[in-house]
Amino acid sequence: MKSAVTIALVPDIKTGPWIFWHDLETSMAKAASLGFDAVELFTASADAVAPDRLAALSRRFGVKIAAVGTGAGKVIHGLTLTDPDAHVRSKAVSFIADMIAFGAGFGAPAIIGSMQGNAVPGVEYEQALDWLAEGLNILGKQAEDQGVTLIYEPLNRYETNLINRLEDGVTLLQSLETPGVKLLADLFHMNIEETSLADSIRQAGSSIGHVHFADSNRRPVGGGHTAMADIVTALQEINYAGFISAEAFPWPDPDEAARQTMASFNQYFR
């Protein structure tokens, strides 16, 4: 398994579960110095970072790109795959498609979390799920064509009323026409929704394509009460070989959060 740390590069956003903030070059340098294998980027759009510059920094610091987040599509533009307005859904698909192409240039998947949206008042749950599946089918096929996977993230009940548990995420993926979509096992969300994090990971198995590494309170691992040893065993049992990426609050500050994350990664995975 490989380590990654998140970098938020959206000026409009001042708080959130990302370790490093705003300065791409400095953040990648710090990630490299601590021994991270990769960084996960949260950008305002697909053209917010010049690919040539990112490639140069990746080579310079020996740090790969683990994934790219799409959440700015909702946070900044209000776009979701389940909006009742078909025009908005189409714009959401286009935004994510651009992020897929951006990430694919580095062999990195795009992540759909908040852009999945909700079943809003006046929209039946099954209708919202149909819209979500429609978007995932389109985007999953595009990811396949570009040699990457698309990562879908079940969120906790306070962030979406669609898919909250890995088990339901597997059911959704099995209903799709494309195998190009995998699940994100986010330990923070799972701590709220799953009866057993380890058992949920075992049951999801090969459907898991990415892991977000955070403790029960979304601080860096070691700052809460998540039973990490059991989770590590489950990941080993399903032969997970992807990234373990720190999407956690920068507590008490970004540098210490990054150090704590790497110490925990080394403790459990090395």
Please tell me about this protein's structure:
This protein is an alpha/beta fold. The chain has one domain (2-269): TIM Barrel. 43% of the residues lie in helices and 16% in strands. It is built from ten helices and nine strands. The chain has helices spanning 24-34, 51-61, 72-75, 86-104, 125-145, 166-175, 187-193, 197-204, 228-237, 254-269, and strands at 2-9, 20-21, 38-43, 64-69, 110-112, 150-152, 181-186, 208-212, 243-246. Strands 1-3-4-5-6-7-8-9 form an eight-stranded parallel barrel, surrounded by six helices. α5 links the parallel β5 and β6. The longest helix has 21 residues, at 125-145. The termini are close together. 51% of the residues are buried. The model has no long low-confidence stretch (mean pLDDT 97). One of its GO terms (molecular function) is isomerase activity. Keywords: Isomerase.
